[in-house]
Structures are given as C-alpha cells and as structure tokens.
Amino acid sequence: MSESESILRGHFRDMPQQRDASSLGMWVFLATEVMFFGGLFLTYTVNRAAYPAIFAQASRQLDVTLGATNTAVLICSSMTMAMAVYFSQKGKRTALVISLLLTMGLGLVFLTIKGMEYAEKFRHHLVPGYNFQYAPASAGPAQLYFSLYFGLTGLHALHMIIGLGILTAVLIEALRGRYTPEYSTPVELSGLYWHFVDIIWIYLFPLLYLIDLHR
Amino acid sequence: MQPGSGIQLFPVSASNFSPHVDALMAFWLGVSLFFGTIICVGLVWLAFRYRRRAPDEVGADIGGNVPLEVAWMVIPFILTMVMFAWGADLFVQERTPPPQSQEIYVVGKQWMWKVQHPEGRKEINELHVPLGRPIELVMASEDVIHDFFVPSFRVKEDVVPGKYTTLWFNATKTGKYHFFCSQYCGTNHALMNGWVYVLEPADYAAWLSGQNSGEGTVSMADSGQKLFTQLACQTCHLADGKGRGPSLVGVYGSAVKLSTGQTVLADDGYIRESILQPNAKIVEGYQPLMPTFQGLVTEDQLIQLMAYVKSLAPSATGVKTAPGAAASTSHTSGSSR
Amino acid sequence: MSTAQTLTLPRKNYLNEGYGLKSWLLTTDHKRIALLYLVSITFFFFIGGFFAVLIRLNLLNPAGTLVSAETYNRLFTMHGITMVFFFLIPSIPAVLGNFLIPMMIGAKDLAFPRLNLLSWYIFVLGGLFTLYSQLAGGVDTGWTFYTPLSTIYSDSHVVAAALGIFITGFSSILTGLNFIVTIHTMRAPGMTWFRLPIFVWTHYATSIIFILGTPVIAVTLGMVALERVFHLGFFNPALGGDPVLFQHLFWFYSHPAVYIMILPGMGVVSEIIPTFARKRIFGYSFVAAASFGIAVIGFLVWGHHLFVSSQSAYAAMTFSFLSYLVAIPSAVKVFNWMGTLYKGSISYDTPMLYALGFIGLFVIGGLTGLFLASLGLDVHVHDTYFVIAHFHYIMVGGAVMAYLGGLHFWWPKISGRLYPEGLAKFAALVLFIGFNLTFFPQFVLGYMGMPRRYHSYPPEFQILNVMSTAGASILAVGYLLPMAYFIWSMRYGPIAASNPWPATGLEWQTSSPPPPENFEETPVVTWEAYDFNRPDIKALLAAQAAAASSQD
Question: With contacts defined as CB-CB under 8 Å, which chain C residues touch B165?
Fold first, then answer.
C-alpha cells in the first residue's frame, strides 16, 4: 500500500514501531509539562499555606459562574475530542471533521470567556504590574495571589492556543482524508495533549476559584 | 594544628565550635585519604600489573561478584552514616543557642554591616563580644541575601530579607577575627567584611558602657519604646487588651490563638510579620484593622520595636521589666513557613 | 592499531553525502547534528574559558584591580552560565550521545530526527540570547540568580540571560525525549536491555533528569523574568514573597543537573575501560542499576545547597542523609571499574589515560562532596573556595576529561582519521597536571575561609591564589592542544580502520566514518555486551598481531 509507505518514515522499521515511538514521545512530553506547571503549583501551595485568609479573600474577586462555565466547556471539548479520535479510528471522515470543529469551537469559547475575565481584572486594577490596587494591609499577598492567577491561567491559555494551532493542522489533514483506521496517530496524540490541557484546568478551577466557596 | 607563617591550612580556633568542626574535618580527611589512596594507588598498580603482554591478548572472562558488590555498598554506607550522624549532631548544637545567650542584633545591607547591642552601643563593620559567654546574633537584611561568616569561629548563616536568622557561638580566645559576607550580594560583596573583637568580660563591659567613646547609650528597648509612641502603636495596643488591637504585654514567646483556630508561637518572625503584613494572621477576637508599616520602618527600627516588645513582661507595674532579664526563647532560625 | 594494508575512506559516508551549508543546516542525520553541536559547544567552551582566564588573572593580587568589581562579578556569572548551560549540560549527550546512541542500538537514526535538528536550533537561539546579554554589558547575579538580587536589585541584563537559558532548556528536553523513545522502541533485533552498552544506560538515566528537571528551571527562570519586569512578588519579602522559595525551585533542577553532567561521562568511561582492558565490565547489572540510583536519589538532595539558608533543621538533616546516600551508587561504579581492570589486558592509549584520570579525580571530587554533605562541616565551608574546588574536580576533572576521552575514543569513527597518539598523551598529562595545580589549592583556601565570588581578598590568601592561577595557565594549554590536533587530523591524520582499537560495540561494526543510514543492513544481535571472545574480535586481534609481527 503506497499510502502507508509514504506515512512510514525512513528510519523506522515498520508502522507498529513508528506508532509506538510517536505515542511514547507524546507521553514523555506530557510528563515534562506536568513538571513545568509543577513549579507554579508549588509556589501556589507555599503561598496559600502562608496567607490562607488573604488568598481566600482575593479569590472572591473571581467570578465563579464564569469559571464553572469554562470548566463545563472544557470537559465537553474533551468529550468531542475523544469522539474525534473514535471517528478517525473508525474511518468516518465527516464525523471526525465535525468533532474537531466542535472541539476547536468550544476551545474558542473558553478563551473568549477567559479574555472577558482578564478584561474585568484590568478594569478593577487587579493586574500585578499595571497599577495594582488592593486593601493596603493585604496588598502584598493579594498581589501574589493575582500573580499566580495570571501566571497559571495565562500559561494554561497559552497551551490552549497552541492546542488550537495543532488542531487546525489536524483539521486540514482530516479534510484532505489523510486519517484512516490504519493511521490515526496525529489525532490520537492531539487528543492526549488536549485532555492534558483540560486536566490542568480541572486543577486550576478549584485552586483559584473555590478557595472560600462555603462563605 | 596552629597556623604558622607562610601557607596556613586551618584558621585559628577561637570558638567553642572550632575544635569540633576541625575534628569532623580531620576524620573525613582521614577516611578520604585512606580510600583515595587505595583507589589511586590501586588504579596505578592494576594498570601496571595487568598491562598488555601480547598484541592479541584479551582479559579474563569475569562477569562480577555479588558478595563484593554488597561489601562495597555496605562499608561506604556505614562510614557515611557515621559522618552524617556526627555532622547532624554538631549542626543541631549550632542551631540551639543556650537559654542564657546574650543577643546582639546585626543588620546587613549593601555593602556594610550594622551591629546593635541591646544596651545601646552601635557598630559598623565591627562586632565586640565578651569572651566565654554564649552570644546569639539575631540578623536581618535591608535588601538582598547576605551571610555572616566568621572562619575562626566556624560559624555561618545567611541573612535573608523578610525574616530573622540567627547564629550563636561562645568565643574562647581573645583577639581580632575576620568576618566576611558569604552570600554574593552585588558589586561590593567582597568588601563587605569586618572584624570581630573578643574582649575580656571586664573590658567588654567597659566598652559597652561607652566610657571610652564618649557616646551616650540608649538601650534598644528604650529606642523601641520611643518609636512605639511615635508610630502611635499604643492607640490600639492597649496594655489591658481592650483596644482595637491585642495587648503586647508578655506576648513575645507566648502561644497566640488566631482567628482561623490555629495557634502560633509569637517569635521574632511573628512580631515582624505583624508589623509588615498585619492581615496575614489575625488574633482571635480582633478585627483586621491594623495598617501595614511596610516602607514606613527600616530594619533597624524593626529590631528596636522588637526589643521593646520583648521587654514587655507582665509585672505589677504592667509596663516593662529590664531587658536581659526577659528569658531569651528560641528564635526560629528556620523558615517560619 | 591500523593494519598494514592501505586503508581508504569509505566512498559513501555521512560526511561526503551532500556538500554545502544547506546540507548541514537542514540535515536530519543524527551524526551531522552531533557535529553541529560539537562546533557550537566548543565555541561556548572557549568563551567560558576566556572569562575564567580573566577571573584567575584578576585574582593574582589581593586588591583585585585588573578589572573593576562590577566587571569581575559579570565575569564569574557569565563563566558559570556559559560553562554550565552551554557547554557541560549538552556536551556528551548532544555530541557523543546523538552520534552514537542510534548506532549502539542498531538503528538508522533517533526516533525523531526533525526534533533533533530543532533541538540544535533552539540551543543556538538560546545561546544567542545569552550572548547578547553578555555583549550588551553582562549579568552580575551569579549563575544561580538568587533573589531578590536578581529580581529587584541587579541592574544588569538579567531578563535576557534568563530567557536565553529558558530557551536552551527546551533543547535539553527534546534531546532527552528523543533518547528515551529511541532506546525504548528502536533497538535492533536481539539487542535486549541487558545487552545494551552502559553508555546507553547512563544516557537513559540522564534523559530522565532532562525531562523531569529541566521544565522546573524553565518555569523558575520564567518567574524571575516576569517578576523583574512586572514586579510580581513571588520572591519579594516586601510583598510577602519568599526569597528562599527561589532557591528551592532553582536547586530542584540544578542539583540533578550536575548528574546530567556526570552520568554521561560515567557512560563514556564504562566504554573505554572494557575496551582498553579487553575485558567485560565487572558487575554490569550493578553499574546499570547504579546509573538509575544516581538519577533518582539525585532528585532528592537539592536542599544541601540550603543548609545555611534558614532552612529548618529537620529538612537539613533529611537532605544531608540523602546526600550521603547518593554517593553509594557512584562508589559502586568506581569499584566496578577497578574490578574491570583486574586481570585485564591493559594498554595505555589516550582514551584510557583520560578514563583513569577521570576515576582518580572523580573520587577526589566525590569524597570532597561528602565533606559538604556533613551539616556541621558545611556550615564552615559553604560558599567558600572549598565548594568551588569540589565542583571543578567533578565537572572538569570528571566530566570534561570524560568528554575529551570520549572524543579521542570515537574520533576514528566520527572522522575516519586517527589523532596523533604521542601528542595526545602529552596533552592529557599537561591537562592533568594543570588541573590539579589550579584546583587543589582551592580546597585549602576554602577551609581557611576565603569566600567565593570575591574580586579582592585578604592578603593571607595570596600565595594559594597565585598557585591556582599558575595551574590555570598550564590547563589552558591542555585544552588548546587537542583542539589543534583534532582539526589537523581531519586532513592529515592517518586513515582509521572501522574498528581500530578494537571495541565490541555495534557502532564499530560499521565503517569509519559510517554511511548515512549507519548500517548497510539492520544488524541482528546474538552476543552479550563487551564480549572479547567473540569470533570477529578474535579474528581482528589475530590480524593485528600478524600485521605487527610481519613488520618486525
């Protein structure tokens, strides 16, 4: 099958080896991403343990409804992504394309809501480095909280944007009919990446938005 | 080993810790020389004894020896554990100032050291201490991380902005000893040095009272009390606790219950944080009303305020007792987080 | 070494497959990428070395007035940054690892050749950022970037340097990722895990550190840059931040980083010693397991850099204990190398001299690390020249010597030529003498109390400083000589056979230099590692002996 031969890269022996290598490569990459976010999570933990009351108070400045909506949006996008992988493996091109479009659409919704939240923060002078204003007695640790808020959600949003870029490339190839039951690796690997970005958000949401929810 | 002229190998031994550190050094030096020699001589001997005798000669077919592997894991492990335990024990002693230690305050800033004795005398780049008494340095930084290092005493500790760090020693020999800043702190890090002067107790007392310098001495606690009034602390911190802020009488060294239910020790770090980040910990029964004094007080002023608060022991007069009579409780020389 | 018959370079090899800049800059051949790295890291080595020369010259006299204090502080900072991130960390993995790992396992290339090329470009980009920060006036925070000096008080080009290191970190991550996937999925038929050369095992362990550690330094330096630009506050006590948090984050990577620097060197030594003793490595599975032991425990000891940083005594004791523990697998390796020499058939070729030197100097460096691991002793010698001497023994006496030994060992394979043996032995000796003269006095300086990062010092420290500088001038010659004769040999060196030593690895089963696809046919492995009783090795040895006796 000449189609398979062109997919098999020259240095690999056969398709199973190529598939194994690609899959292991993505998992190893995700491990590095865990460590990358890890430094910020550690900083969050240390600072929240030092200033629990101020962190709780500062987190009340966030809009829990928007945060929860975004969480639901991302979980749905992971579902549509999983569907995309399934359809790709079943050879159903139209369903694959629709699933990818839905995933990307939901991702854009997420980013839009995030953008709205960021704009709100700017209006209320809650952006460290840009005329940050807060009750003076709590201003220092509150600034730490918001630095972590922007650092963590910003890094996450950057990964989402990159993910959208990856999905665009996958979408283009899907439209060209490149993915078959024998060759769905790029869709699978993009799925892994997308799920990972989703899981990071699942951690961020309670840590940033839900510190003091029972109040 | 006393240093002579020419190339010295050890600094002078001038504190209670010096002989112990040197003993530790000698032990591990001995172990290292022993194993280092065995290995280096062994390498040379093996390379010579088993040199190739014919161009097509190959070595013997030996894969390994498990008992040998176990032996050369267990023996190094035992030796290293001895070294670990010995070093850890010495470290714990270095971190545990005796209860009757005399406190001296040190503030480091780019690129000089300011020393303040509780009785009032101040120094720049010099530290006078009495012979034979445990001295605890309570140290703060105004800017970056510095480090106070006295090679002859074998003591060292970083001076970290935002907290108090401590080190203690008991000087065992009169004389003049170098101290160095030992954490890179910018342009003139190499110039941020000075001298420790160890004096006989009588000479030290004379120096402390300022007889020879013509300088009047106001104790740190008194300076602190003046600041306390100047900054209007007493308007909220009434002695009976009925003001907007808790009473500070006897607070230093006590266990404080917070609004979160947690109980913390009111040590140096706590006092400092209460002044600079007042909303970090709220005492139970009080509101978060205290303004922050970040940027309004210098490190020197903070330690004076702290000396004043430390002097507020409960008594019939309800105000303060003489500094020095207040027992010095242990400072957290580790991070308070 | 070579046989009496006239040798010629193989007609089709990776060096002459395509000429011109584009064929090199757009290559995906791991061997060419290895050479691209070789050129870049050599460039950075000489820059870092130049800074070191100025440092040692300034320290000739106590007043330290050769350069200003500001300049001196930039010099030691940039020496550290350049040597650590742009020379030591990539050196053996990116040059020898890239070149050899596919060949050692019988594969045609690494798993992701294009990612491999990308990693080199990322390395160069990071290097350019850092070079810019140096040319624009330099950084003066120390390579350790301690806060709040780096985030608030320094007025040097911190952000550019931090960004440069941040970017280069991704080069490490991609290399580690590539190695792990390659070793797992691309071994030739019959190349089981326990037939792998130890070099491959050590690079696998190194790659674990690459992928788990490097992202942490990346995010940490990112935080430093953001804090400096946007005044965020993570490390600023005035805002409630903690300067010591930076130290924990920084050293969480930077301690394992030193195992990144030494493990590949141990892998090189583990190839050289069996080859020149013509004997199996003693305790193969112990040596392989020790590589992982070092990597894993190495992640747990970072707090030994914070013993006097106001860390709690309990934490300090935990880290001290673990720091002693990490010495055990290293000791295991040293004893196993000595066991390999026992009843071997030893020759004194240059690679073997470097390997033997490595063991001796690494042992000194490692034992002095144990002085530092002792809490009571570290309080005295922390941040003094004792520490500087310790880590230079490991990094220079260890890692750099292993790197040079490896370059000499595999030079025939890489270039198809032999380097001049007599001159090489002389250079190794010069290097060994110069190195010890430079760094041994620094142990004494440190115990005497001379702190590090001092542009001027009290006069009683002068004699030892002068000795150290004298040694450095000799050491420099030891580095310049190989540079010169390696280049000379590429044109004028005698042509090498495919297996001149001979050695048992798969890489020696193909021509010198190798063809672009490494092997004409995929090899099938039926023998154990380091088997000098293999028929083809015996035949080579017999032929060499016959040629030698026919020349008498």
Answer: 310
Closest residue in C to B79 (Cα) is C324
Full residue range of the structural domain in which residue A111 is found: 40-209
Residue B132 shares a structural domain with residue B228: no
Count of structural domains, chain B: 2
User: Nearest-CA residue of chain B relative to A140?
Assistant: B277
pTM as predicted: 0.93
* CB spacing of B145 vs C243 below 8 angstroms: yes
**Pair B282, B245 in one domain:** yes
Per the model's pLDDT, the better-predicted residue between B261 and C5 turns out to be B261
Distance of CA B144 to the CA centre of its chain: 16
Integer Cα distance of C171 and C178 in angstroms: 11
Question: In CATH, what number is assigned to the domain containing residue B298?
Answer: 1.10.760.10
pLDDT tens string B64-73: 999 999 999 9
Domain range for B237 is 220-311
Q: What is the ipTM of this complex?
A: 0.93
Question: Cα separations (Å) of C161 from B310, C138, C210, C221, C225?
Answer: 45, 8, 20, 9, 9
Does B124 lie in the same domain as B163?
yes
> Is the minimum CB–CB distance between A144 and chain B shorter than 8 Å?
no
- d(CA C306, CA C304) in angstroms, rounded, equals 5
Q: What's the CATH number where A120 sits?
A: 1.20.120.80
Residues of C in contact with A186 (CB under 8 A): none
Could you read off the pLDDT of C171-188 as tens digits, one per residue? 999 999 999 999 999 999
> Quick one: tokens of B284?
């139970």
* Cβ separation C239–A36 shorter than 8 A: no
CA distance B50 to C277: 8
pLDDT digits over C502-530, tens only? 999 999 999 999 999 999 889 999 999 99
Whether the per-residue pLDDT at B213 is higher than 70: the answer is: no
Contacts with C516 from chain A: Cβ below 8 Å: none
Contacts of A53 in chain B (CB under 8 A): 259-260, 279-280, 282, 288
Please report the domains of chain C, with CATH numbers, ordered by start residue. 21-550 (1.20.210.10)
Domain count, chain A: 1
pLDDT, mean over chain C: 95
